[in-house]
Design a protein that fits this description.
The protein is α/β, with parallel strands linked by helices and 393 residues long. It is built from 13 helices and 12 strands. Mean pLDDT is 87; it is low at 1-6.
C-alpha cells in the first residue's frame, strides 16, 4: 500500500476503468496514464490525498469519481472493512437510519416514443412505515405494473430503461398515472392512500427560452413576462405560468406528492410561483438547488468532495440518488444506511439496479430494524422574498 503502483495499484486502475463500461466517457490509455502519473507515490490508504490529486487531473468528472470509488473500495478491502464501516471511519457517517424509498416505475419522456416529455414516474410509501415494509408495498405495485404492461403487450415483457424502470410510450404525462392506477386496481390499494406518486420531470429536456413578451398568451390574459418555455407535450410550447398551472393541477387531481426538476434551474421566478402554490402540500426537489427546492444528492467528482458536501446539506429533506452510470454499484447502498438523507432513489427494481436494492435489504437484515430518518414528509414553508411580501402588505 506504499503507492498507487504497489500491490493494488493496477487493480485500482482496472477497477476504475471497468466501473464505467456503461458510461459515455470510458477511460482510455491516455486517461489511465494521466491518472497513474498524478497518483505516483500516493498511498492508496490516503483517500483525501488521492481525491485532492484527482481534482487537478484533466479527465472528466465521471472518470475522477470512478478512480476515487475504486480507491475507496480497495481501501476497504485492505482494511477488511465493508463500505458501510469505512464511511463511519473516514467520514464520521455512522448513525444508521433509513431514508424513505422512492422507486422508479415507468420511464417515458425523450427516451421513449410518444409526445409526452415528462421523464418518469416513481412511487413512495406512506409516511412512518419501516423501510422494509414500505419496500414490500412498492414491490407489489411494481410487479402489478409489470404484469399489466405485459398483458397489454401480448404477453411480451416490457422493455427496461437504464434506470431499471419500464419504458412506456405516452402522448401526455397523465397516461402514466392512468396506467399505474389501472395496474393496481385489483390489489385493493390506491395511489394517494397506500402509496404516493412522484414525477421526475427532468424539465431541462423540454425547456427553451424566448425574449420576454413573445409567444402566445391565454385568451383574455396578458403576455407572459417569463423568458422560459416548456413543451411537456411535444410541439405544444407554453410559458412558465402554464407549466406551473399544469403541475398544480396534477397535485390537486392526482395527489402527486413530489416533483423532481419540475422547472429549469434558471427559472427562479417560476420556482417562486410554483412554491407559492404547492409547497405546503407537495415536495419540490431540484438536482441543481434553487430557492424553495430541496436537494438531490449524487456522488460526483470524488468520494471525499461528495461526502463533505453531503454533510453540509439539510439531509432530512434531501434525496440520495443513484446516477445513471451506477448500474450494479453497491457503494451507494451502504451509504443509504448512514447518509442521513430523508429519501433514497436508486431506480427501478429490474436490471442492474436490482443489485442496489438487494444490498440495502441485506444490510438492513444484518443490522436489525432501523429507525427512519423522518416519519413524515418535510414540506418547505413558503416564505415570499421581501419585495413580494412588501407588495402584498
Amino acid at each position: 500500500s506504499s503507492g498507487i503502483n504497489a500491490e493494488y495499484g493496477q487493480e485500482v486502475l482496472e477497477s476504475a476503468s471497468m466501473g464505467y463500461n456503461n458510461a459515455d466517457d470510458k477511460m482510455d490509455l491516455d486517461d489511465m496514464k494521466a491518472v497513474n502519473d498524478a497518483l505516483q507515490g500516493v498511498s492508496i490508504m490516503d483517500q483525501d490525498c488521492v481525491d485532492e490529486k484527482m481534482g487537478s487531473v484533466e479527465v472528466s468528472p465521471s472518470i475522477k469519481l470512478s478512480v476515487s470509488t475504486a480507491v475507496f473500495k480497495s481501501n476497504a478491502k485492505l482494511q477488511k472493512l465493508s463500505a458501510l464501516d469505512l464511511y463511519g471511519r473516514q467520514f464520521s457517517l455512522s448513525e444508521k437510519k433509513m431514508p424513505m424509498p422512492i422507486v422508479s416505475i415507468m420511464s417515458s419522456g425523450k427516451q421513449a416514443p410518444g409526445k409526452n416529455n415528462i421523464s418518469s414516474l416513481a412511487i413512495m410509501p406512506k409516511q412512518g412505515v419501516p423501510f422494509e415494509e414500505g419496500m414490500q408495498k412498492l414491490e407489489s405495485v411494481f410487479k402489478a405494473v409489470e404484469d399489466y404492461l405485459k398483458k397489454k403487450n401480448h404477453n411480451i415483457a416490457p422493455a427496461l430503461s437504464p434506470l431499471g424502470a419500464f419504458l412506456v410510450s405516452c402522448d401526455k404525462p397523465e397516461q402514466m398515472i392512468e396506467m399505474l392506477k389501472e395496474a393496481v386496481s385489483e390489489l385493493e390499494i390506491q395511489a394517494g392512500t397506500d402509496f404516493f406518486i412522484v414525477l421526475d420531470c427532468l424539465s431541462s429536456d423540454f425547456h427553451s427560452e424566448v425574449a420576454p413578451g413573445q409567444g402566445s398568451a391565454k385568451k383574455g390574459q396578458p403576455q407572459s413576462t417569463s423568458r422560459h418555455r416548456y413543451d411537456w407535450i411535444e410541439g405544444q410550447t407554453k410559458p412558465t405560468e402554464d407549466m406551473v398551472d399544469f403541475l398544480e393541477g396534477l397535485v390537486e387531481s392526482e395527489g402527486i406528492i413530489g416533483f423532481l426538476d419540475p422547472l429549469h434551474p434558471d427559472d427562479v421566478e417560476g420556482y417562486e410561483l410554483l412554491a407559492s402554490k404547492i409547497s405546503s402540500k407537495c415536495l419540490i426537489f431540484s438536482r441543481k438547488l434553487t430557492p424553495h427546492t430541496s436537494p438531490v444528492f449524487r456522488l460526483h467528482t470524488t468520494v471525499s468532495t461528495s461526502l463533505n458536501q453531503l454533510q453540509e446539506l439539510d439531509r432530512p429533506s434531501t434525496i440520495l440518488e443513484a446516477a445513471v452510470f451506477e448500474e450494479g454499484e453497491t457503494m451507494l447502498s451502504d451509504l443509504t444506511l448512514v447518509s442521513g438523507c430523508g429519501y433514497v432513489m436508486l431506480g427501478g427494481l429490474r436490471g442492474d439496479r436490482r443489485a442496489l436494492y438487494n444490498r440495502v435489504s441485506k444490510l438492513v437484515q444484518q443490522h436489525g430494524p432501523l429507525p427512519n430518518v423522518s416519519d413524515k414528509w418535510i414540506f418547505k414553508e413558503y416564505v415570499p422574498p421581501p419585495a413580494i411580501a412588501e407588495a402584498e402588505s
